[in-house]
């Protein structure tokens, strides 16, 4: 009987993060099903992030970490986890009352006294941002800011690429790109003087692959990826690190306690904001350059677009129109059914 070898690539994404499993199955004859006792081995490619497993605590403890967008969502959870790991924090967003709420909930070696509130509107221009950086640097004058977590972002409006309005485009880019880059340009010289500093940038899967129905958001995250990978290439030898985190759909809660799914009224497979924050901190503490955090099918799409773009872009061209319709109907925009024309709404 002739033997055939087949490779079956199973793409696994779970709350545990990024994982591919390559299963090499021995197939007998014309059967396409592997025999139960066949020689089989699994190679689990724990892509860099998942192989790191735990936070390097000494990279976080006693460090000064400035987080934007800390008034709710992933930023709030990041603040809680970083405080618990013994970091000193500067928390920023526009809503001061929400920042105070978050500050009161923080526990850890330096909380609450080592947690400073710095209200900040990323769209308020360079003079304001210069003042904000001066304040942030003065809170902990012995060390200055060790990490800048760029987490704040403009809301993610769902519109087709042609419906993008100039106002919406400007509002998105003002926060996600111009404000974030300006803050970086102003803070980086302080870090360069000390010969060390680390930018952790909350990008998105939409910054790696097409995101039908979210063209503005996707464009802004692609821009961030381009800027920060370039910044790192220019400044790495001078002690500046950059970690770009690209999450897929994440379950977040607002300050008032409602969750992403509750707000949308549909169930989507989202990674919890706790797991997202945990993996982000693991990636940052190990100095990873880029980390992907997502459930399927978004993770598989990211891999395809990165490593097999012909297939990845073909797939996105197939689902794109349906995803825009699903978004308009407030349906599930991450459903595998979009590929087959089924618009699963829950
Ligand atoms: N949630 C997801 O599914 C998901 C997926 C991929 C990537 N991400 C990324 O992860 C990050 C956090 O997402 P999230 O869902 O937690 O966001 P979110 O709940 O919408 O929170 C956004 C944060 O940004 C702040 N912010 C908004 N405009 C600002 C401005 N002009 N100046 C300063 N701060 C401002 C908000 O606070 P104020 O309103 O008080 O200013 C808030 O704290 C974002 O970068 C997002 O793009 C999220």
UniProtKB/TrEMBL annotation:
Domain Ketoreductase: 63-253
UniProt superkingdom: Eukaryota
Gene3D superfamilies for the chain: NAD(P)-binding Rossmann-like Domain
Gene Ontology cellular-component terms listed: membrane
Pfam family, one: adh_short
PANTHER family: NAD(P)-BINDING ROSSMANN-FOLD SUPERFAMILY PROTEIN
UniProt name for this protein: Short-chain dehydrogenase/reductase
Record lineage: Eukaryota, Viridiplantae, Streptophyta, Embryophyta, Tracheophyta
């Amino acid at each position: 009987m002739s033997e055939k070898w087949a490779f079956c690539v199973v793409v696994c994404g779970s709350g545990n993060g990024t994982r591919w499993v390559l299963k090499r199955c021995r197939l007998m004859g014309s059967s396409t099903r592997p025999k139960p006792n066949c020689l089989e081995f699994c190679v689990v490619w724990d892509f860099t992030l998942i192989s790191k497993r735990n936070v390097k605590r000494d990279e976080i403890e006693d460090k000064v970490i400035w987080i934007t967008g800390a008034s709710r969502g992933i930023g709030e959870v990041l603040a809680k986890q970083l405080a618990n790991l013994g970091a000193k924090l500067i928390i920023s967003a526009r809503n001061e009352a929400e920042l105070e709420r978050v500050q009161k909930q923080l526990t850890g070696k330096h909380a609450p006294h080592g947690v400073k509130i710095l209200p900040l509107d990323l769209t308020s221009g360079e003079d304001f941002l210069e003042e904000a950086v001066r304040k942030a640097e003065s809170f902990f004058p012995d060390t200055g800011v060790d990490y800048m977590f760029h987490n704040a972002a403009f809301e993610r409006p769902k519109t087709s690429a042609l419906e993008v309005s100039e106002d919406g485009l400007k509002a998105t880019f003002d926060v996600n790109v111009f404000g974030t880059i300006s803050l970086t340009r102003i803070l980086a010289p302080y870090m360069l003087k000390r010969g060390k500093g680390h930018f952790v940038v909350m990008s998105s899967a939409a910054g790696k692959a097409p995101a039908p129905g979210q063209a503005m958001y996707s464009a802004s995250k692609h821009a961030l990826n381009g800027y920060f990978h370039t910044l790192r290439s220019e400044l790495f030898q001078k002690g500046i690190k950059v970690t770009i985190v690209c999450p897929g759909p994440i379950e977040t809660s607002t300050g008032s306690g409602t969750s992403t799914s509750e707000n949308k009224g549909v169930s989507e497979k989202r990674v919890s904001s706790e797991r997202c924050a945990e993996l982000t901190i693991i990636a940052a503490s190990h100095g990873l350059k880029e980390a992907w955090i997502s459930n399927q099918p978004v993770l598989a799409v990211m891999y395809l677009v990165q490593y097999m773009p012909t297939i990845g872009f073909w797939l996105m061209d197939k689902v794109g129109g349906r995803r825009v319709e699903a978004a308009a109907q407030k349906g599930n925009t991450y459903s595998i059914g979009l590929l087959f024309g089924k618009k699963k709404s829950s």
